[in-house]
Amino acid sequence: MEKEKCTECTNNRTTKRTDEEKEKLIKRLNIIEGQVRGVKQMILDDRYCDDVLTQMLAVNKALESLENIILERHLQTCIKNKIEKGSTEEVSKEIMDLFKKLR
Q1: How many helices (H) and strands (E) does the chain have?
Q2: What is the spatial distance between Cα 52 and Cα 42, in angstroms, rounded to a whole number?
Q3: Domains in the chain, ordered, with CATH?
Q4: What is the dihedral of CA 29, 100, 15, 63, to 10 degrees?
Q5: pLDDT tens column, 8-22
Q6: Cα dihedral 93/97/98/103 (nearest 10)
């Protein structure tokens, strides 16, 4: 996946993604959506708690993986672009706020 320099993210808080990148992210989201539906069905089917919790762990790990992909791209494009423009104080605050949200 080619990393593009983000020109839009700093101005109006949007991030331009390639069609390939969008496709990969949507594919992962569709898988996660299916996993969540599976958990719902397991509850409706009165499945054993341990089995439900195991599937929920898989959902959480899939979300964490997606989160890491988006975070990595954000750091490589949006944040890098802001640093190159000299907005280091703004970048530092943004990164700290972001990590606080992610904990």
Answers
A1: 5, 0
A2: 6
A3: 17-102 (1.20.58.1000)
A4: -10
A5: 454 567 889 999 999
A6: 140
